[in-house]
Amino acid sequence: MGRWLSRDRPYNFATMIRAKKQFLARAVTLVGSVALLAGCGMFSNASPPNPDRNASPTGGMNISEQTATPVPTPQFVKSVLLVAHLGEASDATPAGLSWSGVKTAAAKIEATATHIELASNAELAADLERAATPSAALVVTVGTDASAAVAKAAAAHPATQFLELDVTVDDSAPANVHGIVFDQAEAGYLAGYVAATFAAGGRVGIVGDTTSDPSAANYAAGLKAGASEAGTGNTVSVAYAGSADSPSKGRTAAAGLVKAGSNVIVATPSLSGIGALRQACAAGAKLVAFATDAWQTVPDVQSCLIASVLNRYDTAVSEALATLAAGRSMPHQTIADVASGGLSISDFHVDLPDGFQTKLNAVMGALANRTIASPGTIGLSVPTSSPVPVA
Fold first, then answer.
1. Secondary structure tally for the chain: helices H, strands E
2. What is the pTM assigned to this prediction?
3. Residue 235 belongs to some domain of the structure
């Protein structure tokens, strides 16, 4: 299951959101009735099993004396509106992956999925209002740009459930608003392990957006921990573009890292990060990407790409919709990580060293079983929005 932020705040989750220019605008309508899904999904809040394996199933009581746990009541779902970024039709984008998750959920609950395109972002508020108006609607958005419209619609339609991806939802938000964020420090850990393995001399560089960006701090902290796991003596250098929206500034930051000796470059998932990946590739460095599969989203860097650490929007959306439709509760905030299936690694586009896949499988298994501590606490100070020193 995913982790609740109310239970576990290992690092900067209060402000852990994606960079500017968030994904806005495609729409989906899902029509049909919902059947209760069995089992504990990523967002279920079922109680853990009794740790005493020798205890009797009834705890010493007569069965007649026990109070049964109420079974959640399945919700009848008329519609789901998915709002993502205009023009993000590719299956590899957050919008496309989220749409895939909606279709997966529709198949499981025997509902019909209908796809609607928005003509412009100006229609966002009106479309959210229309989506929320039917009884028992589910509304899904991607990115912070939709948050104001979601807050207004959620207040006006308390019976409608709202799911925001890549958004930190404050505890003061209405009870019908839920956010999913992807564990950036854990993603950084995986990227660091992979990058350091393929870096000559173990020299890895990361380009963040700004020194005050909590995402950059979280990624960098995890990157350093993962690089250390890959071997002693590995180093991570950090540079900043100074903006999330400037490919040219990202290029400048990456050029500096490569010139200083970093030969595998990682960049945060923003316009500046894309510029950094392109410049690093042009300078002969290898690349590891975050969030989406750069092999598909930035095809001109394919010759330099080792792999991408993926945010599984499809898995997160599918399980969240199943949870809400089944009548199970969700908290304001959930962290999607390796254990919940919310993070994974793409195909590798380079030859793998002997034994690497076995070692990587062990790392992934340890993260999935949580026998490795959160990257935010592995020999590190708690990441903050303060600058991360350059190694």
1. 10, 14
2. 0.78
3. yes
Contacts of 26 (CB under 8 A, 6+ apart): 82, 83, 84, 85, 86, 88, 89, 95, 99, 115, 116, 117, 118
Continuous H helices in 242-377: 247-259, 271-282, 294-297, 313-325, 356-368
Residues 201 and 298 occupy one common structural domain: yes
Tell whether 159 is covered by a domain: yes
**Whole-number Cα distances in Å, 268 to 65, 161, 294, 374:** 56, 30, 12, 19
- Looking at the structure, tell me whether residues 156 and 304 fall in a common domain: no
* Co-location of 179 and 143 in the same domain: yes
Contact predicate 257/265, CB 8 Å: yes
> Measured between alpha carbons, how far is 145 from 3 in angstroms, rounded to an integer?
24
Burial string for 288-297 (b: 16+ CB within 10 Å, else e) reads bbbbbbbbeb
Q: Both 330 and 198 in a single domain?
A: no
pLDDT of residue 14: 39
Position 200 in a domain: yes
Q: State the pLDDT at residue 227.
A: 96
pLDDT means per 10 residues, the chain with 391 residues, are: 45 39 37 35 38 36 40 55 60 83 81 66 78 74 84 89 90 91 95 97 96 92 94 95 96 98 95 97 98 94 97 93 84 92 96 96 92 52 33 37
pLDDT at 323: 87
Bridge partners of 83? 141
Instruction: Count structural domains, the chain.
Output: 2
Are 112 and 328 in contact, with CB atoms under 8 Å apart? Answer: no
**Is 388 inside any structural domain?**
no
Which residues, 6+ apart, have CB-to-CB distance to 12 below 8 Å?
A: 214, 217, 218, 382, 383, 384, 385
Domain residues for the domain of 17 are: 3-38+72-183+314-336
CATH number at residue 90: 3.40.50.2300
The residue with tokens 């030859």 is 351
Question: Do 329 and 293 share a domain, yes or no?
Answer: no
- On whether both 191 and 178 belong to a single domain, the answer is no
Q: What is the pLDDT of residue 10?
A: 41
Encoded tokens for 249 = 């500034």
- What distance in Å separates the CA atoms of residue 199 and residue 235, rounded to the nearest whole number? 10
